[in-house]
Amino acid sequence: MITYSATKTISGTQLAGLLSASTSKPAPADSHRLQRILTNSNLLYTAWDADKLVGCVCGLNDKAYCCYLSLWVVRAAYNQRSIGDAFIQKIHHDLGTGISLVLLSDSQDALHYSELRFENVDSGFEDKRAF
């Protein structure tokens, strides 16, 4: 049974392990950089199968208008377990439905996010970072 938490903290090393077991690579698996992401995010949800980390979403939330989901990772073996749906339900439950959820996606994951009711928008801009 998958359990979810908005209070458990994880380390950059744990997140790097989760990234290496996923099909999506939204961030470099550099545990120091991942630790900075975790430390500076004000939103963190994790999914667990017993003591195994199987999913994580983190981001920045202004608590009034928008929540940017900067990292969304699910262990590949758990991709068909509705973990993404559960994350969205829990985030909306905790933040309220008046908060827009925003994320960047590569074309590989775009279909998945549209299945989770995210709309593709053309009104955004990005100044890409250098890794």
TrEMBL record:
Molecular function terms from GO: acyltransferase activity, transferring groups other than amino-acyl groups
Classification via InterPro entries: Acyl_CoA_acyltransferase (IPR016181), GNAT_dom (IPR000182)
Superkingdom in the source lineage: Bacteria
Start and end residues of each N-acetyltransferase domain: 28-91
Protein name: N-acetyltransferase domain-containing protein
